[in-house]
Amino acid sequence: MKQWSLARQLLVVQVVIVGLLVAASAALAWADVADRAEESSAAEVTALAKAIAGGPTVATAVAGLDPTAVLQPYAERVRADTGVDFITIMSTDGVRYTHPNPAMIGGRFLGNTAEALAGRAFTETYTGTLGPSVRAVVPVTAMADGRVIALVSAGISVSAISAEVADRVLWLVVIAAVILVLGALATYLVSRRLRRQTGGLAPAELRRMIGYHESILHAVREGLVLVDDDHRVTLCNDGVRALLDLPADADGKRVDELGLPQALVERLLSDTEMHDELHLTDTRMLVVNSSTVHHDGRALGTVVTLRDRTDLQALTGELDTVRGFAEALRAQAHEAANRLHTVVSLVELGRPAEAVEFATGELAIAQRLTDQVVGAVAEPILAALLLGKAADASERGVELIVAEDTEIADQGGVPARDLVTILGNLVDNAVDAAADSEGRWVRISAHSDADELVLRVADSGAGLPEEVRDQAFRRGWSTKPGDSRGLGLALVGQAVRRAGGTVEVGRDVGAVFTVRLPRGERT
Fold this sequence. Notes:
Blueprint (H helix, E strand, L loop, with lengths): L5 H49 L1 H8 L3 H16 L3 E5 L23 H4 L4 E7 L2 E11 L6 E10 H41 L4 H17 L3 E6 L4 E4 L1 H7 L17 H8 L4 E7 L4 E11 L2 E11 L1 H39 L3 H25 L3 H16 L3 E4 L13 H19 L6 E8 L3 E8 L28 H11 L3 E6 L3 E8 L5
Parallel strand pairs: 10-11
Antiparallel strand pairs: 1-4, 2-3, 3-4, 5-6, 5-9, 7-8, 8-9, 11-12, 12-14, 13-14
Helix pairs in contact: 1-5, 2-3, 9-10, 9-11, 9-12, 10-11, 11-12, 12-13
């Protein structure tokens, strides 16, 4: 059997609660009205009895020969005017002088009179000739000496009090019924809204759906962050915690309190949407997208997704290196064809000696650089990188010089991808700077010891002013125009930080970049 939806369960529970509350309130009100009606009746008959006992009529009539003749009409007039059920005036022995039923006159009063005979007025509920009643008994005292000469009792029957209570409670019942109907209607409206919000799902289904969603959010590798309209994090999955190194208590904090890259924080605080934007952290390159969430025309916050592009960027760098090397080989093949044609032409012209000298001279220059790079750099990828960069620099008219003491026997635990990123981007920037200078050279040196690997790239360019050296490793900073600029040195800084090293910017003829990378244990 299908379970009731959450909205229906809450409707039933709330209707029951409202019904019980209204019933309990009505019962308490009924009891309170009954108590108050009895108290007000007792107060009413006490005041009336005292008024009669304190007047001169009763004292004078009791002293006469026929008290009943005077007091019976008087008591009935007062009873009719006040609406009480009986007024009985009696002697101190309890013999009635008055009674609503004249046949009871002369009989003894049914009730207690001891307190009244002692001079104290009192009230009680007693069953007399008219049935149960709330009555007051008050002494009548002589004016001369204050002794008790008669008693006055006034009362209202319990049935009359009950009728009065019933009249009052009728309205109470009507009000309670109206409240119950209004409460049930309000509960129904709330349950309808809740049913729309929950899609009519039962609690178990909601629990299962939330569990699925939580599992999916934390299973995806991509980072997901929900930011409210106050720029506070409301949800972040495991992927984004790993990508941004967020603290465990990130939920509820503002985005500018999490130690995120300043450029990313500024974009999030600006509430502008991002589409495949690149942002660098200390160790990663991230592709960021964001979009504003709207509901009923109101902005609720921002959904931010992040993808790690670090490995892809490293592979792209390696691919660029291989492509550059291939281009260099193609250029060299073209040059080799030209040189071969020159040698053949010299032979055909009968000048073999000059042909041999030309061929061996060109071969020696190329072979010297190749032998030096291959002998100094054990990592094939780095060797290919330097040879490719040398050919590329040569095409741009820049001489790439590898220092004679350069030696990289191994990278000491630093990934080859990071070395390609660091050295490749530093050489590219150096070649760009040297291409506009007079000297037009770039010098590379590297050496390693037991503690660290040191890479140094110098150029003959204009160098970096000291006041901008701290900004050079930020994404987007560049000395050249163009939206695609400003990424190379930022990647260098990221790779150096990821390896736990440092990078220094100095000046000789031009800029000098020195990278120090700690050596890790080789496996």
